[in-house]
Amino acid sequence: MKTRRQSVFVLVFFFFVFNLYVGKAQVSIPAKFDGFWYENRSPEIDSIIIEAFFDPVCPDSRDAWPPLKQVLNYYGSRISLVVHPFALPYHDNAFVTSRALHIIDKLVNTTATYNVLESFFKHQEDFYNQPTFNMSRSTIVDNIVKFVTEVVGNSYYSAVKSGFDDTNTNQATRISFKYGCSRGVFGTPIFFVNGFVLPGAGAAIDYNTWRSIIDPLVSQ
Length: 220
Ligand SMILES: *[C@@H]1O[C@H](CO)[C@@H](O)[C@H](O)[C@H]1NC(C)=O
Ligand SMILES: *[C@@H]1O[C@H](CO)[C@@H](O)[C@H](O)[C@H]1NC(C)=O
Known about the structure:
Helices cover about 55% and strands about 10% of the residues. The chain is an alpha+beta fold and about 220 residues long. α3 packs antiparallel against α4, α3 runs parallel beside α5 (about 135-150) and α3 (about 95-105) packs across α7. The chain starts with a helix and ends with a helix. The structure holds 2-acetamido-2-deoxy-beta-D-glucopyranose (2 copies).
């Protein structure tokens, strides 16, 4: 009887500790919705909203982008896409490349952000695993600054470089990650349409599948 009462006590205790922990771990709400709106197409009241969680150095995210872009061109203003960077811990340099996207978005414009994302996709094998295995963190950041400024223009070099010293860009990248976690994101690419997750997490969705998802919504 005594042990039973003890275990009930232990359970209640852990329940309180857990609640305390969750309460403390609450993420502070950012001033602006996380992510990058494609072509600045902010949503209208009847827009179909696609949220994409991409890791800039994830091959499946890379493969998911061309068909999605084709879909965005096809439906035009009926669709709004917001990309949230989601840095997977098992991809080297996922955080630093995600941070570069936030730096460019703040410094230049969203068009430039998408150009940089596309360049990361195109050259992502330069940034993860073996090729950077023996590089120091500062060499990697330097390389990324050079790489990014080749996309947006060399005049941004020093601004991009100091962007990596700005704690706000670090914070923004963390918020993207935490936002993904709060939505149950556990890999990339993961898509939500009008707030509902699509099946097939972690794999690219081809153009015809996208059409079969969006067509019925457009016709309603
Ligand atoms: C975004 O920035 C780039 C690079 O500075 C510039 O060429 C482009 O015209 C800008 N686009 C928009 C839509 O402001
Ligand atoms: C890293 O450096 C060590 C020591 O110089 C070398 O043996 C190794 O092959 C290098 N690894 C890669 C992936 O370049």
